[in-house]
Design a protein that fits this description.
Layout (H helix, E strand, L loop, with lengths): L17 H9 L16 E2 L5 E2 L2 E8 L6 E8 L4 E2 L2 E2 L4 E14 L5 E4 L3 E4 L5 E5 L5 E8 L7 E2 L5 H5 L1
Antiparallel strand pairs: 1-3, 2-5, 3-4, 4-11, 6-12, 7-8, 7-9, 7-10, 7-11
Length: about 160
């Protein structure tokens, strides 16, 4: 614990007291930001990291000290990411459609609207739409040591359909 806050802790629990919490946080500047959807144009998923037609909306990266980034990604049928991993892991929340996800070395799995997928840190994987139906998801990942994604090669049609 920070030495300047030691006197602000409850000796029985070693938790910071409510009065100390209020005092500490009253001195910090907080900034709420609203990123308006209308002010953020859709982007195209780059061919270097995606196969097929991919749209990226509401892309966000937190300012330091925050590390979280997110986006809504829409894959047309047969579109998908390249193989990749995330140093701090990645959370997907499937919004609509039918998609596939695959961890390296395991069979691909179907995902549907309302499903949540967690890929652990440095877990090599890909995700995208099924071969017949589009899929949209919210993707959330944190940066670690200044990077959030390590991209690799494209997923071959054989691996995608396998």
């Amino acid at each position: 614990m920070n030495p300047q806050h030691q006197s602000n802790t409850d000796p029985a629990t070693n938790h910071i007291t409510e009065a100390a919490y209020i005092s500490i946080n009253a001195t910090k500047e907080t900034v709420m930001k609203i990123l308006r959807n209308a002010e953020q144009p859709s982007g195209v998923g780059p061919a270097k990291t995606f196969t097929g037609d991919v749209r990226v909306d509401q892309y966000f990266e937190a300012e330091a000290p925050g590390r979280t980034g997110s986006a809504i990604v829409t894959f047309s049928a047969r579109a998908r990411t390249a193989w990749h991993s995330h140093p701090a892991g990645q959370l997907l929340y499937i919004l609509s459609g039918r998609g596939w996800v695959q961890k390296a070395g395991e069979p691909k799995q179907e995902v549907l609207a309302g499903d949540t997928v967690w890929f652990g840190p440095n877990e090599r994987h890909w995700h995208g739409a099924s071969d017949t139906k589009a899929m949209s998801h919210v993707a959330i990942a944190e940066s670690l040591d200044g990077r959030s994604t390590d991209w690799a090669e494209h997923v071959s049609d054989e691996d995608y359909l396998g």
